[in-house]
Specification:
mainly alpha
Amino acid sequence: MWVRSATAGGLATSALLGVDYALSQLDLAPFFPLDVAQAGIKLTPGFVATQGIDALGSGAKVLAEATALLVVVLGGAAIGAFAARWQVQRSWSNVMALAAVALALVAGAQLVAGTLPDAISLGVLAVSFVGWGRSISKSWPTRLSAARWECAAPCRSRWWRSRRGASTWPGSYARSRYRAW
């Protein structure tokens, strides 16, 4: 279950990056993974950054940006796995809390990088994070899905089906009883 949620988290984050890149091309919002990369460069000790730049040349910037993109996507996958592991329920309050935490982390990275945008850009980012959180929440378990699994589990037994007066053909009782699946 958590693997599916981690995959959904990574894919939703990739979609968020695509939307954010399009918004940055329209000058509506900053492309926040570049701000994460800039914050990582600023937090790196000076001699390490200097040696890395000397060794890699112009590839150092590409490596830093690719690493920041990978960190952001893996962070989204980790959030999806966390939500599945702790069985976070799908609700707007959880989505809004997730969006607020993500926005606070991005604003913190932008503050460290010195690239904190204006309020309108942060508002656009907040709206995109709410959509991202809602798309991740689609993979979270719900109480209804857990209840359906508990109801369907006894139906898998041949003995249980025969006691309920149903056909003993595998799956016939479950299909007739739970057509909504």
